[in-house]
Amino acid sequence: MQQFDALIVGSGAAGLYTALHLPGHWQIALITKEDLALSSSDWAQGGIAAVLDPTDSFQLHTEDTMVAGAGLCERSAVEVLVEEAPERIYELVHLGVGFDRYQGRLDLTLEAAHSRKRILHARDATGRELVRALMEEVLSQPNITIFEKTLALDLWVDQGRCWGVKSRHEGRVEYFGAPVTVLATGGASRIFVHSTNPPVCTGDGLAMAWRAGVWLRDLEFVQFHPTALSLPDTPRFLISEAVRGEGAHILDSRGERFLSRYHAQGELAPRDVVARAIYLHLKAQGEERVFIDFRPIGAKRMQERFPNIDQMCQARGLDISQEPIPVAPAAHYCMGGVQTDLLGRTSLTGLWAVGETASTGVHGANRLASNSLLECLVFAHRIGNHAEQAALTYPTPAPETPELPPAADHVATILQKLPQLCWDHCGIVRDRAGLTVGLAQLHHWQTWLETGDWGADRASLEARNQLLVANLVLGSALWREESRGAHFRADYPETLDAWQVHTLVRGEQWSAQSLTTPEPGGSVTLEVKL
Length: 530
Ligand code: FAD
Ligand code: SIN
What we know:
Helix content is 33%, strand content 19%.
């Protein structure tokens, strides 16, 4: 067993930033299941939202976030997010994050559903630049020890407290003990066959927390990004929303712009609205992809602003300066997660959660673009500053455990079929019949788990976590009999006041949690005019 003062699981923006803000005299372990650099954070494109322009205000950013969240944001959390944003940005600038500038000042761009230009960016690879700077800083700190290719298997819970994690490290089970354990394991969008996320996003943190009896919240709210590159047999590479903010158009196969038929803001309508509009339009036309046309942006601006997208498209034989490129929606972001308070504390003593794996209350039923990296920074900083107040008591050594068994045969079946099942039965538009069929299949696969014949290699462990998380996501989607934000039920298409509650899940139990600061209305409805 290895003993530290704090243990962080995950090396995205949330994990790295937490490591940098915990007390410098603590010994900190940061474990991550792949290489340090592989995370959604590293893949982030559009940018980070913050109020920096004199014509903008905290109130406007708060209201934009609350409107996108469709009545389920916690106002107190949103205010923390928005009001602490500028300081976190100045810290990043100080750390050397190379945000784009215009005439020497930080350049701000517009993204859908933001009422002002407030998105800081580093071309179209903001995440890569952010992670580069954070990694360099983390690697230079002598009190932070990095463990790559180390997979957290489960929380180590004893006497009602978290003492660290049990992990798979160099082919063995190893315990990492710490009085402060921080889950920063990112999202779960890889349970869907079409996803913008890297392969590490299998919901491990959610599964570990659930197995430890921790409260999870709002798992039905999965954000589908409207525009991911859609080519046969190719992973869905994200085409940033920022391209629409800069003037790109979405066209159907006839070359017509159609989004204004669904919402007055057209290309700049909220993300859930655009994704559903594309989905409905494709269904009506019997087609699989729409097109995004960069040409209104102009060749020079495109080269400057979107070199990463340009390169990725070129590598696939597409020239964005000459032709519209095929895109379709893909699962992108989990609004729900491990419930935390405003200091990142979960319902289990000794356990904190931060970043996409957490549910702080800032995103409600639908996240506003570029608020996620911001959430990672703001709440990581809060954890770092307040965790010192946690009484540091150390666990006694954990028992040695045997070698891990190899993968069982059914793992391959689950890994292959589960993502398609989630997409088909719990995608952009859901209904009771589809969710029920999907859950029945998941329950059948779950019985395989109960046989005990289950490997402990990485694939088996991720399959097990995905199976569990898929059950929770579909179960939550079935539980919520209304449509709100990113959760659309064809059989309950209205947003209902009675459902202006969070979905809490622990064990097999679903329940409603009132908002601490209920907001009247605030929902965005899709104007279907087919
Ligand atoms: P991640 O960055 O996903 O990191 C999770 C980490 O946990 C990884 O290191 C992973 O290996 C590790 N991990 C997971 N499970 C385990 C385990 N069992 N054991 C050990 N380690 C584990 N948001 C914005 O605000 N602006 C954007 O422009 C933007 N663009 C995006 C573009 C793309 C393509 C994607 C996918 C997302 C984008 N997002 C954006 C969303 C945002 O990037 C993520 O929500 C955010 O980066 C999540 O950060 P995180 O630190 O919580 O998780
Ligand atoms: C994008 O660049 O479109 C992604 C932004 C986000 O997810 O916030």
